[in-house]
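Can anyone check this?
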Amino acid sequence: TVGQLCQKCITGLGLERVRVSGDPERTVTRVGVMVGGLGQDRHAVSWGRFLMGLGIEALLVGETNDFAQRFALDSGIALIETCHSASEEPGLDAFARDLQARLPGAQALFRREQIPWTTI
């Protein structure tokens, strides 16, 4: 379900919560992923070009906005927002480790970002 996918995101990215647009009880079998700021409405053309034709039922994004949430709901897609930096960090961490392995004389560091906001 969308709710179970949210829990996997929370656990996998070490978050306290995610923001979701759509029914948490909805069953999903196909999920699209757009990290960082690609979940914002200005990237909706990319959604259409690369994901919506594939039959996605949920879209996992790093950062979104009101218009994108409404677009997703109007398109029948649940939208799960993690956090811009949290969505990119697993790839950046892997990239730093790969660089270190390929360039043993260099120093490749990864620094986890603190989420800059809280919910009240």
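Reply from J.R.: I decoded it. The chain has a mean pLDDT of 89.
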